[in-house]
């Protein structure tokens, strides 16, 4: 009988404690799903692949504005924005996007197929040539 009373008391105390706690702490489960910036990048790249360049530019820029976590994603967003701008005869914006990608990683290169493209290949090579030489470590 005494054990049963103790068990009931402990259960009541546990229930009262559980009810009095604040909201459940953030367990970080949102980190398991892609962040909004990465989702925007994914939509932008898919839109580009589908030939929806205006939509691609919007989502790629949104991804950059939201703050992409990884440098490779930032470079990719700038690269595809450059492609969109070059293809729509907006060479200044194209150059600006390539410059931003190169500012993030001066060793950034286009693939052989991308570099051989008749529209943005020459623009990229021009931007690459304008980059200052890498700093030497002392």
UniProtKB/TrEMBL annotation:
This is Uncharacterized protein. The keyword Isomerase does not apply. It comes from the Bacteria. Residues 1-18 form the signal peptide. It comes from Sulfurirhabdus autotrophica. The keyword Chloroplast does not apply. Keywords: Signal.
